[in-house]
Specification:
It is a single chain. The chain is α+β, with helices and mostly antiparallel strands. It has two domains: about 5-230, Rossmann fold (3-Layer(aba) Sandwich); about 240-359, OB fold (Dihydrolipoamide Acetyltransferase, E2P) (Beta Barrel). About 25% of the residues lie in helices and about 35% in strands. The chain has eight helices and 20 strands. The strands form four sheets. It has a six-stranded mixed β-sheet, with helices on both faces. It has a five-stranded mixed barrel with strand order 11-12-13-20-14. The chain has a five-stranded antiparallel β-sheet with strand order 15-19-16-17-18, with no helix packed on it. α2 (about 95-105) crosses α3 (about 110-120), α2 packs parallel to α4 and α3 crosses α4 (about 140-150). The two termini are about 35 Å apart. The chain binds adenosine-5'-triphosphate and magnesium ion. Adenosine-5'-triphosphate (ATP) binds near residues 40, 41, 42 and 44. One of its GO terms (molecular function) is ABC-type polyamine transporter activity. Part of the ABC transporter complex PotABCD involved in spermidine/putrescine import. Responsible for energy coupling to the transport system. Keywords: ATP-binding, Cell membrane, Hydrolase, Membrane, Nucleotide-binding, Translocase, Transport. Pfam families: ABC_tran, TOBE_2.
Amino acid sequence: MSSSNLQISGLGKRYGDFVALAPTHLDVARGEFLTLLGPSGSGKTTLLSLIAGLAQPDEGRVLIDGADVTHGAPYERDIGMVFQNYALFPHMSIEENIVFPLKMRKVPAAEARRRAMEALEMVRLPHVAARLPRELSGGQQQRIALARCMVYRPAIILMDEPLGALDKKLRDQMQLEIKRIHRELGTTIVYVTHDQEEAMTMSDRICLMNGGAIEQLGTPADLYFRPRTLFVADFLGESNLLKAEVASVDGDVLSVRLAHQGVTGQALSNGAPIKAGQKVTVMLRPQNLRVGTSGAGLTGRLLDVMVTGSLTKLYLDSGVADAEPIVVAYPTQRQAEQYAIGQPLVVSWQAADAVAISE
Ligand SMILES: Nc1ncnc2c1ncn2[C@@H]1O[C@H](COP(=O)(O)OP(=O)(O)OP(=O)(O)O)[C@@H](O)[C@H]1O
Ligand SMILES: [Mg+2]
């Protein structure tokens, strides 16, 4: 991942008065797997369409390898696209479907056929070459759509919710498949999803979007462990968000007093400037909390226990009006201690696992 492959500079799009994408800057490195993540309507598809040339921006530029392609036609850009609805040609065989983009690029027939078979090997479906799309499952069709996009080796592949229509198990398999192909080909990928788990597993970096603008851009770990805003903390993974006030600041380490029971403790800053006396929200991930029947910490009554497969989750009422229950999670074990509903429990954590988000 050396030079930047795709540069987006002040790119913006409006529909009438509505700002679908505020002027946005984004650099994607060669070979990077970048995911656009965000709620419905946050501008993910808009940004992707502007990169692909399927929509025209009102301002800003798109550069590929330094060349300005902002107003070029889609086919003039070295870009492949895979959509949620794979849109294979129904009357063509799988092989003909994959050969099609090569034919359009005037690749000789024998060479096109050889490369199509190679692409089919890549998605592990060489045996379906002669079939029609309707003779394949949804997951297989999506793999063919991927093969059809890879076959002409674009430098950049854009994917808009490519796994959205698949069931959970198939999604998991396809995620691994796409990662493997990305590793083997070294293609730059810009991937759109609104599934935060998918974004976390797949990406080198995540660009979290909100209301037509970038909310935070960074590695999955950056966003997960150092959210810059409450929106990020809330969107990525489950979290307990507790109101607090900063008592003192020592570099990156803050002493905080929680509104919950006046409990004091330490938390790390999220990188934003902060001063004593400031109100913050302390983020605690459920799996970083420990629970016991005595000791120092936050006390809560056990409301509910849920076994969600690999994790067991405890919900505690902290007694604070209007506060969400505190969630504690730990790996499910047959031998785990049994707690009774209504029982008071003490929750504690390590300073390094608490992050203060300034408001
Ligand atoms: N052609 C259009 N005309 C008017 N408004 C549009 C048009 N295309 C998109 N929008 C609006 O722009 C906003 C961003 O849309 P976009 O499709 O980029 O969202 P998204 O993040 O891809 O959402 P989703 O997760 O639902 O696909 C939405 O509010 C949408 O209604
Ligand atoms: Mg979309």
